[in-house]
Amino acid sequence: MSAEAWQITWFTIGVATLSTAAILPPGVALGWLLARRDWPGKSLIETLVALPLVIPPVATGLILLKLFGRRGPLGGWLERTFGWEIVFTWKAVVVATAVMSFPLLVRTARVAFEGVNPRLEQVARTLGAGPWRVFATITLPLAARGLVAGAVLAFARALGEFGATVMVAGFIPGQTVTLSLAIYQFVQLGHDGEAMVLLAISVAIAFAAVWVSEYFVRRRPA
Amino acid sequence: MSVELSGLRVPLASFALEIDAVLAGRVTAIFGASGAGKTTLLEAIAGLRRLEAGAVCVDETVVADVAAGVFVPAEQRAIGYVPQEGALFPHFSVRGNLRFGFEAERQYPAGLTYEHVVEVLELSALTERRVGTLSGGEKQRVALGRALLAGPRLLLLDEPLAGLDAALRERLLPYLARVRDEFAIPMLYVTHSPDEVMALCDDVLVLERGRAIARGKPAELFRESERPRYELRGD
Fold it and tell me: Exposed/middle/buried for A170, CB within 10 Å: 0-12, 13-18, 19+?
């Protein structure tokens, strides 16, 4: 395997890991809020979060490009405050994959929390456990299998993300090119051999991710 | 020890629970048909449900008072609650369930130790078992032990025998009587069985559609081995 293929592979895995790690805390928190609490604006937030699932990824990418561009509201602020440039850098790849996989994580987390019997949480409270202890010792362990499945789903979505990434991060070899982008580019250039290598790598990573999630989902709680 | 319910009001689907009562028995039965509001009453006392109006006082401590804006959260009330289905934590062993609310350093009432609770409820053979392997009666004993080990000043039992067959009910009743006699923790005992009231309770509050329609000693309300004077009526 060429050095380029290795670089693309590790870059893709790194970006998918980083974006999954970044959305895990807010995704789990939002999933819990949607499952367990009623609050004003709930259905609006629910709809906004689901949008990347239904809007064409390229359109989501364009929205992100406008938001995170130098003259965009978020991009301008990030550059002035932290000196961060987002678009057409690896950071844009993380932003695009995070936004695209966030709805999958939130939905799976919500279903996982809804599957926890609220009676167990209530009884834990009558036994003297405050809200955080109830969450950490009852809710989270009982929802854990669903949350792992959601994280794997988000990771897999991040691995394969194409449309939003290409809009907001472009094709910059060695900087923003992920497996999906590279496969497309190699095929366009007629380098089918290289494309097939990357294809095999993609399948292997996807296989491993699904296998790991099956392991967690099937394992009975201790 | 007493539970004072003053002007308590909790809205339900088709009517409201409205109770004014002082419950001071060792074991007070909350007796009534399904849907009378018995479980809601326990939830309101435990702090799992907000009141719309009124106040709840346990042992002369106000735990909820709508007019004064007082609402003590469930975890600070020291009121044990055993729901109908037991609600054991499925990811813990029996021991893990029993120890959930137990703190070795805390001052417990005399006689309330881990070993004593395990002995009274005959749980020692079960402690390493997984919750999923327990029978219905075993689950209820573990749920009762778990509630006791949190050191409650009041214990709320929601039809603990309802899901069991007649033979198991017969076998579990003595455990409940032993808990009553050994630990001197007052109990509110929700049931729709006159037999259980006669066997365990010394005071009865009869609920119908959210209201207390009768109050008295079990022997006054139910004559033994006869039909109860109060017929159960559902919705």
Answer: middle
The complex scores an ipTM of 0.89
Residue among B221, B218, B32, B203 nearest B229 (CA): B221
pTM of the model: 0.85
Please provide the DSSP assignment of B138-183 as one string.
HHHHHHHHHHHTT--SEEEEE-TTTTS-HHHHHHHHHHHHHHHHHH
CATH number at residue A132: 1.10.3720.10
Measured between alpha carbons, how far is B112 from B189 in angstroms, rounded to an integer? 20
Instruction: Please tell me which residue of chain B has the smallest CA distance to A138.
Output: B89
A221: chain B residues, CB-CB within 8 Å: 90-91
Q: Which two tokens stand for residue B199?
A: 């066997």
Mutating which of B100, B133, B146 best tests the A interface, going by the most A Cβ atoms within 10 A? B100
Domain range spanning residue A56? 3-218
How do residues B17-52 score in pLDDT, each as one tens digit? Answer: 999 999 988 999 999 988 899 999 999 999 999 999
CA distance A122 to A124: 5
Angstroms from B60 CA to nearest CA on chain A: 19
Q: How far apart are CA A48 and CA A37, in angstroms?
A: 18
Nearest by Cα to A120 from B161, B143, B39, B163: B143
Tell me the three state secondary structure of residue A188: helix
**For residue B76, what is the nearest residue in chain A, using CA coordinates?**
A128
Chain B residues within 8 Å of chain A (Cβ atoms)? 43, 46-48, 73-75, 77-81, 83, 85, 87, 89-91, 100-101, 103, 146-147, 150, 152
| Residue at A40: amino acid letter | P
Which of A38, A120, A122, A126 is most worth mutating to test chain B (most B CB atoms within 10 A of its CB)?
A126
Tell if the CB–CB gap between A123 and B85 is shorter than 8 Å: no
Of B9, B1, B2, B6, nearest to B56 by C-alpha is: B6
Q: Return the number of CB contacts < 8 Å for A and B.
A: 61
Question: Which chain A residue lies closest to B149 (C-alpha atoms)?
Answer: A127
pLDDT in tens, B176-227: 898 888 888 899 999 988 888 988 999 999 999 999 998 988 888 886 545 5
The number of domains in chain A is: 1
Strand-pair partners of B61: B58
A138 interaction partners in chain B (CB closer than 8 Å): 89
pLDDT band at A219 (very low <50, low <70, confident <90, very high): low
